TrEMBL record:
This is Aspartyl protease. It comes from Pseudomonas vancouverensis. Residues 1-22 form the signal peptide. Pfam families: gag-asp_proteas (PF13975). Keywords: Signal.
Length: 398
């Protein structure tokens, strides 16, 4: 996520609606779907297993909730060609409930008939290429000839047609996103009657975007095929949906290392949270002696961005992103001095407090995750070791 950009979410009820957990599912459901989902078997379950588990849930309301979760997991898994059949099945079974729900109705208007036909004919999503050690440079700007006041971690990304462009390596973005110019450059096939809307950390709501299929996307020697991507008017983001599928990696201020040597150190363990499309990398932390969880967000230009206030030392004003916000201008933040502590480490930090601005509700094991983002400037002090498959992911002090 970029502090002057946005944190990508699906707005149409998929993530904006409250997430159903065990306490929300009626006792008559027969299957405690959400308790199973956050267990290790549930986290590692295939899409077929998810669908089967949901089918065992009794009660129409409970089944609709779990079906939306399964649909979200399909999007996360980039299983474009599996979406149409399940999408239409949910519509057939729960049409009246969807029509009456202000959140679900836009979600199930997301794809038109032409888009569903294109998705159904799309090949299987796959990840290919050798798993060998590889060091990819991180660039501070989108182009070598372009300089900005703030730097972000850009990496080179290649398409099947030979086009190369730079994407922000963004662990805070659940989904990979491209802008319209890149979509044209890389030959992305836009879905003709599909659209969605998303919100941002900074109060921007219902921003429009489209969806498309990219035949091939390559990061180093790793190639993703038949990739469902989101297209908007903002910067290109390589999101956690694809970053998490690159295999073991190490992110430092200067490089993205694929398949690096295993780190024996683990200063602060990382939790990989998966709840619908809200994939996040979380660390336990203390901000001004208050226990919290922080989201590791390499697309955030700041050291720390938060909705939790410490000791105020000044105030400034900015406008987030490059789109106008709705309603009166409330884009003010306060610069705050405080202390950030993580297992064995305590650092004085100056962070940005955005009163009233939060990410959409995110629940992990029944607990709310607040809007605290540990951003790219923090990588002057830390490096990220990420291995989703093994579960051994750590944030280490340099």
């Amino acid at each position: 996520m970029r502090a002057l950009g946005q944190y990508l979410i699906i707005w149409a009820g998929l993530l904006g609606a409250p997430v159903a957990f065990a306490s929300d599912v009626p006792a008559a459901s027969g299957v405690d779907f959400y308790r199973w989902l956050v267990s290790e078997p549930g986290q590692r379950a295939s899409l077929a297993q998810l669908k089967k588990q949901c089918e065992n849930v009794l009660g129409e309301a409970a089944h609709l909730k779990c079906a939306v979760t399964v649909f979200a997991r399909m999007l996360e898994a980039k299983a474009a060609n599996q979406l149409p059949e399940y999408y239409l099945a949910i519509q057939r079974r729960h049409g009246r409930a969807i029509e009456a729900d202000a959140d679900l109705k836009p979600l199930f208007s997301m794809f038109g008939d032409q888009s569903l036909a294109i998705l159904a004919a799309t090949g299987e999503f796959s990840v290919r290429g050798p798993r060998q050690p590889e060091v990819l440079p991180i660039h501070p700007y989108a182009k070598d000839a372009y300089f900005a006041e703030e730097v972000l971690p850009f990496v080179d990304v290649d398409a099947a047609n030979g086009a190369t462009t730079r994407f922000v390596l963004d662990t805070g973005a659940p989904q990979t996103r491209v802008n319209a110019a890149t979509a044209k450059l890389m030959g992305i096939r836009l879905l003709p009657d599909a659209s969605y809307r998303y919100s941002t950390f900074y109060g921007e709501k219902a921003l429009p975007a489209r969806l498309g299929i990219l035949a091939s996307l390559r990061v180093g020697h790793r190639e993703f095929r038949n990739v469902l991507v989101f297209v908007s008017d903002r910067e290109n983001l390589l999101g956690l949906d694809l970053i998490s599928k690159l295999g073991p990696l190490r992110i430092t201020r200067r490089a993205l290392e694929l398949n690096p040597p295993l780190s024996v150190r683990c200063d602060t363990p990382i939790t990989y949270s998966r709840q619908d499309l809200n994939q996040r990398l979380l660390v336990e932390a203390w901000l001004d002696r208050r226990a919290t969880r922080a989201i590791i967000d390499t697309g955030n230009i700041d050291y720390l961005t938060t909705a939790t206030l410490g000791d105020q030392v000044g105030a400034s004003a900015i406008r987030p992103g490059n789109s106008p916000t709705q309603g009166p201008d409330r884009t003010r933040y306060q610069s705050v001095q405080g202390v950030l502590a993580m297992r064995g480490t305590a650092l004085p930090v100056t962070y940005k407090y955005f009163p009233g601005f939060t990410l959409p509700p995110s629940w992990v094991a029944g607990h709310y995750v607040p809007s605290i983002l540990l951003g790219w400037r923090a990588f002057n002090d830390f490096e990220l070791h990420l291995d989703i498959e093994s579960g051994h992911s750590c944030l280490n002090r340099i």
